[in-house]
């Protein structure tokens, strides 16, 4: 039986299967090409890209936690001009979709990054990371206020011609409210979740484990909360939802799909096994075969 794993996220973003890799956990994609066939993925989402190059935060910026890890990498990246000039040419030969995750400290940063990426035809979509602090908005993250989230979405919408995914932070009281705000402002899809604000104390040294004190928690520890949020958002918006947070295998990915996600992203699992994402594709196909599912859409939102 031929199983159809193709999914359509709208606004021209069609994937061969629902599996993407998550930003910040898969480099710029090409680093993983020696471990896996990138064309087996629905697509890959590259590192958070900013207008100017960023060194990121000083070490220590990673700490392991029970069933997860906290990172404070701080969006280390060479900047969008460098991406366009040196990295983009390494990504144009793949059949899987290339999505660029963009970040900024003010609305105009996001807009400029999107403008620079717009002529790069093989960038099928951008994922707008609204978890960043808004320096002009008192340092509050764009994604924690419906107004700021809508403002940045609408501004990028004006300059970005292809699919625009907006990535939501879970560090809010109502993620549904933020999802609805970015949908109304022109997002083609929403992805969730980004990391949860967290911290660990080293009691022997009497210091926080991270140089920044707090960081973002990811991995299996966050999965049940992420599944709940995806389920809530999928019922509240009309645009497709992309689910992530602690997916380690196909069964975890299917939880998100059954909760309403059209596609999923694999993040922290890539650090444990660089082939995790491809194994999720194989595992979903195997599940469909075992359960006589002819089309992945039969499983979407059945909860
Ligand atoms: C080391 C690291 C770097 C990350 N960098 C970014 C980033 O640049 N932009 C972004 O939107 N999310 C970033 N994330 C968040 C992930 O894309 C993802 O949303 C989060 O880790 C939850 O998924 P997971 O539990 O499968 O890792 C990063 C996560 C980690 C662990």
Helical segment count:
8
- Integer count of domains: 1
How many strands, which pairing sense, and closed or not: the largest β-sheet?
8 strands, parallel, barrel
Low-confidence stretches: none
C-alpha-based Rg, rounded: 18 Å
Strand order of the largest sheet: 3-4-7-8-9-10-15-16
Number of strands: 16
Q: Give the fraction of residues assigned to helices.
A: 25-40%
Element order: H for helix, E for strand: EEEEEEHEHEHEHEEEEEHEHEHH
Instruction: Identify the bound ligands.
Output: flavin mononucleotide
| CATH homologous superfamily label | Aldolase class I
Q: How would you describe this protein?
A:
The protein has about 300 residues and is α/β, with parallel strands linked by helices. It has a single domain, classed as TIM Barrel (Alpha-Beta Barrel). It contains eight helices and 16 strands. Strands 3-4-7-8-9-10-15-16 form an eight-stranded parallel barrel, surrounded by five helices. A hairpin with a 4-residue loop joins β12 and β13 (about 205-210). α2 (about 105-115) packs parallel to α3 (about 145-160), α3 (about 145-160) runs parallel beside α4 (about 175-185) and α6 (about 250-260) packs across α8. The longest helix is centred in the last third of the chain and has 15 residues, at about 275-290. The radius of gyration is 18 Å and the shape is globular. The mean pLDDT is about 95. The site of flavin mononucleotide has 23 residues, from β4.
């Amino acid at each position: 039986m031929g199983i159809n794993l193709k999914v359509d996220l709208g606004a021209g973003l069609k994937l061969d299967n629902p599996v993407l890799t998550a930003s910040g956990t898969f480099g710029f994609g090409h680093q993983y090409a020696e471990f896996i066939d990138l064309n087996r993925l629905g697509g890959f989402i590259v590192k958070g890209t900013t207008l100017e190059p960023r060194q990121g935060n000083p070490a220590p910026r990673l700490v392991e936690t029970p069933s997860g890890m906290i990172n404070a990498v701080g969006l280390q990246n060479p900047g969008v001009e460098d991406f366009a000039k040196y990295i983009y040419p390494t990504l144009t030969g793949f059949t899987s979709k290339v999505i660029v995750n963009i970040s900024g400290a003010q609305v105009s940063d996001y807009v400029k990054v999107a403008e620079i990426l717009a002529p790069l035809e093989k960038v099928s979509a951008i994922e707008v990371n609204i978890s960043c602090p808004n320096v002009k908005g008192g340092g509050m993250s764009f994604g924690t206020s419906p107004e700021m989230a809508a403002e940045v979405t609408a501004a990028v919408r004006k300059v970005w011609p292809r699919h625009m995914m907006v990535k939501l932070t879970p560090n809010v009281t109502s993620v549904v409210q933020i999802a609805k705000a970015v949908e109304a402002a022109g997002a083609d899809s929403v992805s969730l979740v980004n990391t949860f604000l967290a911290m660990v104390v080293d009691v022997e040294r009497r210091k926080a484990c991270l140089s920044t004190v707090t960081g973002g928690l990811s991995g299996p520890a966050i999965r049940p909360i992420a599944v709940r949020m995806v389920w809530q958002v999928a019922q509240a918006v009309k645009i497709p939802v992309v689910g992530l947070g602690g997916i380690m295998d196909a069964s975890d990915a299917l939880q998100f799909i059954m909760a309403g996600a059209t596609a999923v992203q694999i993040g922290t699992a890539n650090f444990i096994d660089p082939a995790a994402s491809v194994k999720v594709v194989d595992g979903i196909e195997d599940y469909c075969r075992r359960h006589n599912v002819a089309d992945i859409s039969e499983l979407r939102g059945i909860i």
